[in-house]
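Hey, resending since the last one bounced:
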Amino acid sequence: MLLAGVVIAARPATIRAAVQAAPGKITARSEERLAWLWRLTSWVRAVTEHSPGTADPPAVHIGSWSDDERDTLRTDLVWLLKRARQDRDASQRYVYKQTTFTLAELREWLGVDASTLETGNALLERGALLHADIEMFVVPAGPSDQGCRGTPSMMAKDGQAVGSGCGGMHWIFARALLDNLAPSPSRSATARLWSLATTGWMLENRDYSNGGAHVEHVQRWFPADADILFEHGYYHDALAAPAVQAAARDASLGLPSAREQLTEAAGLFRRALVSNPDLAEARVRRGRVLGALGRHQEASDELRRAQAGLLNDQLRYYAELFLGDAHAALGQSASAQDCYGRAGALYPGAQSPRLALSLLARRTGDRLAALHEIETILARPPDEWAHTDPWWAYHVWQLRSARDLLAELRTSFMARPPQ
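The structure tokens again:
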């Protein structure tokens, strides 16, 4: 390699020392030749030094890179990993981008010490964690749209478009890293946990623009995984919400209708239950979706079956509330009243069971009871109801929270060395 007119070996330590000691002596041509390798070693160092769950200097540094820099790095990394995985002779020499180096030097750059099919997997997994943290902690605090795709996503509040969000390029890059796991992402427990945690984070933060491409991509890695099928169904269930549908119509996004979203969600929840019949949370949500589609008897059957396996009070609340809706739609008023009563007993401060009881009383001609429930609701400040009614959190809550999943993911990396 040429550095100030001298041919040298392409060792990272030599390169860093030369660049740091005398950057003014590097010619434009030699600097161009050094750039790809400097970028690669900088990224590997950032990946290994990053503290998971933080916007630390390595995350901020890599977060400042341009789309072209990330794309070039990905191309370089894939080519180099292929060599590191296939070849065995440490003295074997390569020429890449006018740079000559040995397999031993390549292993040093990547931080690996063997040539096997799985060589570099740990680097790719840690890299995906780094770029996820950039999306969650660095990009939102950034002063510009660095790391966002050209067409930004819509942000909505109460069904009204209020601005633009970020279509995350680091999510795309992270998925591309995991695409290169050997023998495949589907064999990696880390990739599975990363998929669940990051999808959960998007759903709980209502990042549906990034969430759609994300959950569809990881679904291809794990096509029959019950938990990932559940999150995929959760995503379509959330897109059917009136506020999301209204905002999409306002912005002319061409989002599929609520009924189409609910139908998709019902199918995904069904597939999740085929893979894991004990996934009670999927059964509760499928019951609600079936009811919203007008399939009330199926909804009732699904929710009754779910009740036997529910230990969490919030899930029990949802099941009672939705089962009450199904019974009311089937004309079973007494059963519906019992369900709403049990839901209200679980969360005495919740608004939804009282509203449901008022509607039920109105339908059966008991106007005094209907008025009593409404007066009880109106007697308390609206904000107080919102804080005590789990229904308000239905589209941003899961039994296994994204926070817990991310903590589990980060702990798994802290428990082992970077490479």
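Residues 1-147 form one domain.

Sorry for the duplicate.
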